[in-house]
Each structure stands twice: as C-alpha cells, then as structure tokens.
Amino acid sequence: WRVATEDERTADELAALVARLLELRELDFGDVSDICLSSTVPRLLRAYEELAERDLDAPILVLGPGTKTGIPILYDDPREVGPDRIANAVAARERYGAPCIVVDFGTSTNFDAVSDAGEYVGGVLAPGIEISMDALFARAARLQKIDFTEPPAVIGKTTTSALQSGLVYGFAGQVDGIVGRIRAELGDTAPVIATGGLAELIAPHSATIERVDPLLTLEGLRLIWELNRG
Predict the structure, then answer these.
(1) Which of 11, 122, 140, 158 can bridge 47 by disulfide, Cβ–Cβ 3.0-4.6 Å?
(2) pLDDT for 10 beyond 80
(3) Using N-to-C axis directions, what is the helix angle for 42-50 and 11-24, rounded to 10°?
(4) pLDDT of residue 188
C-alpha cells in the first residue's frame, strides 16, 4: 500500500492504520511475523518501534548503520546515505545485475550508482518533482497547481499544458543529462531502472530509463531482511 507520511503520527494512529490495511486483505496483526523498516523521518522511528513491540508483537529490523546489506558502500561516510537508497541499490543489483543506475522519483530525485564490481559508489540528489512544482506555484501568483499528466504536445497552447510540458520533458531531460555524466564516470553503459511515485510519468519520455520497477525499494528491504534474519 501507499500512504502519506505524517511525521507526527503516534503508535496508536499507526496501529489503527495498519489494522485497517490488513483488514482489506482479510488479515490481522497475528498474520505479521516480521517487520523491516526504512525511514528517512527520524521522528516516526520510535512510533514504528512501539507499533511492532506492543501491537504486532513482531521483531522489527530498522535499516541503518550496522545493518548487514551485502553491498560494499563506497561513500566517504556510509552513515550519510539514506536507507532507501541502499535498499534500491541492493534490489537493482539483485534483479538487474551490475553495473546499474537507479533513479527514484520521491521527495527528492535520487540517482544511485552501482559499479560493475557490485559496489554502491554514490549518486546524485536533485529536488523532487512535486517539491519543485510546489515551489513554482508558491512563487508565481498567476500559476495554479496542475494535474501531473502527459501534455498533448511539447509546445503548450495553454498555461496548463505548458506547465505539464515543462514538468514531463524538463525532468526527463534532467534524468538523461545526469545519467550521461554518471555513465561517463562509471566507464560503462549501465542500465537505468526507475522507481517512485512519478516514474511511470517520466520514463516514457526519457532516452535512458530502460524499465520501471515500482516495488524496487520494498524488494531491497526484503533482501536485506533475509540477510539479517539469522
């Protein structure tokens, strides 16, 4: 499931939410045996730990420093790398081989590179699509929010279609430009895998994205959980 991140949610609120989601699949708390968590919102961490201990009675693995990932992290300070980025790299290497590049369209647009030796070598962080558009709408009084959909043509005939064109083709161009520079440094034509909420919108207009994998981060969490569960 996909739900909004609200950093002030309590363990009680999370329990109510999870119970309802499980109910939709005719499941309950007793059907949950283990939990693996990747969070970039520190304030929510304790709430999830309470949920796991008190309501689900299941062990929780929080991806972070000290967690076995199975991938060498060649960052100057590995503790600075977001856990979602590591999960993406682990899953991409497992599913698509090395080298590879992941583009994750989230709050920020993350580019993460795996070398031909299977190492996480770093990446690029750029402002996310939604944040960028929100900033534009906030600063330009005459522009109003638009639906994030493909425009009918590159040259917009209305303000809405012009904004949609800038969104789709602007971010597709950003992806292709950054991927080209990453490939030059990797010394390889590494395949590009996209994930994240707006990947399906941008990928068809990018010359470098080869496939979209919406479950990439979750697959990485599963692989890391399996590595650590013993």
Answers:
(1) 11
(2) yes
(3) 70
(4) 79
- Coil, strand or helix: which one is 72? coil
Residues 133-170: tens digit of each pLDDT: 999 988 887 888 888 999 999 999 999 999 999 999 99
CA–CA dist 178, 166 (Å, integer) = 17
Which is it for strands 100-105 and 108-114: parallel, antiparallel or unpaired?
A: antiparallel
Catalytic residue IDs = 84
Q: How far apart are the first and last CA of the chain?
A: 27
Asked whether 178 and 105 are in contact (CB, 8 A), the reply is no
What percent of the chain stands above pLDDT 70?
A: 100
**CB-CB contact of 104 with 123 (8 Å):** no
Residue 27: alpha-carbon gap to chain centroid = 27
Tokens of 142: 């005459």
Round to whole Å and give the CA distance between 176 and 101.
Answer: 12
